[in-house]
């Protein structure tokens, strides 16, 4: 587990001999994931956001997917912890992006072969949009598997900011990025509101 907030270091501990809690001094999800991947020692890496819960049997599902040597990585289907017609639409829109090979959102609990992901480290060297960059980089090394099992991710940003306003922020940030915007500046915009 990689922490971006040093104040959490004393309250979060590893639960087993193969787990380790480390601190990343740089602000942003991509930097934390980059730090974690560099330290990873296993055959596979799971990149899980702190507000996303894995389904029962997640580990066996990943191992089954990785039995196919053509698979470089993948992710789970997702749902929000709160349902509404708008949030359900967002999930369907995200599913469509995955099917079209455009991007895999990080809320899907991405996983990859460690050896392949370590060849894609540059894709994680940003504070934001590491998920978009990583999914494109992994596709250059093989297929991405999308598992039927669903992770549950928090809709807190949508609750706090309003569903349409939060969606607007996401669209603005992704559009800015698509037109060559600096991920650091977009990160500051996205998290300043």
Which keywords apply here?
193 residues, alpha/beta, Spore Coat Polysaccharide Biosynthesis Protein SpsA, Chain A, 5-stranded mixed sheet, 9 helices, 7 strands
Account of the protein in words:
- The chain is of the alpha/beta class and 193 residues long.
- The chain has a single domain, classed as Spore Coat Polysaccharide Biosynthesis Protein SpsA, Chain A.
- The chain is 44% helix and 18% strand.
- It is built from 9 helices and 7 strands.
- The chain has a 5-stranded mixed beta sheet with strand order 3-6-5-7-4, with helices on both faces. Strands 1-2 form a two-stranded parallel sheet.
- The longest helix is centred in the C-terminal third of the chain and has 16 residues, at 163-178.
- The chain starts with a strand and ends with a helix.
- The model has no long low-confidence stretch (mean pLDDT 88).
**How big a fraction of the residues is strand?**
15-25%
In total, the number of domains comes to 1
The 3D shape can be described as globular
CATH class: Alpha Beta
Secondary-structure element series? EEHEEHEHEHHHEHHH
The helicity comes to 40-55%
Instruction: Provide the low-confidence segments as ranges.
Output: none
Roughly what is the average pLDDT, rounded to an integer? Answer: 88
- What Rg do the Cα atoms give? 16 Å
| CATH homology superfamily | Spore Coat Polysaccharide Biosynthesis Protein SpsA, Chain A
- Number of separate strands: 7
SS-derived structural category: alpha/beta
The third-level CATH topology is: Spore Coat Polysaccharide Biosynthesis Protein SpsA, Chain A
Biggest beta sheet attributes? 5 strands, mixed
Looking at the overall shape, the CATH architecture is Alpha-Beta Complex
Termini Cα gap: 27 Å
Count every helix, treating DSSP H or I runs of 4 or more residues as helices. 9
Instruction: Going across the biggest sheet, name each strand in turn.
Output: 3-6-5-7-4
């Amino acid at each position: 587990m990689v922490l971006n907030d040093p104040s959490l270091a004393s309250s979060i501990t590893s639960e087993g001999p193969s787990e380790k809690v480390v601190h990343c001094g740089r602000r942003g999800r991509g930097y934390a994931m980059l730090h974690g991947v560099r330290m990873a020692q296993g055959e596979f890496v799971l990149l899980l956001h702190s507000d996303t819960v894995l389904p029962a049997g997640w580990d066996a599902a990943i191992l089954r997917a990785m039995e196919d040597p053509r698979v470089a990585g993948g992710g789970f289907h997702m749902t929000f912890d709160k349902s509404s017609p708008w949030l359900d639409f967002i999930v369907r829109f995200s599913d469509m992006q995955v099917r079209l090979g455009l991007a895999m959102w990080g809320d899907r609990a991405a996983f990859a072969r460690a050896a392949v992901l370590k060849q894609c480290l540059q894709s994680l060297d940003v504070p934001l949009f590491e998920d978009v960059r990583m999914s494109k980089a992994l596709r250059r090394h093989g297929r991405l598997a999308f598992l039927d099992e669903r992770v549950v991710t928090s809709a807190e940003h949508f609750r706090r900011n309003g569903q349409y306003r939060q969606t607007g922020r996401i669209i603005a940030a992704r559009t800015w990025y698509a037109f060559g915007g600096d991920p650091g500046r977009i990160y500051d915009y996205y998290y300043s509101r």
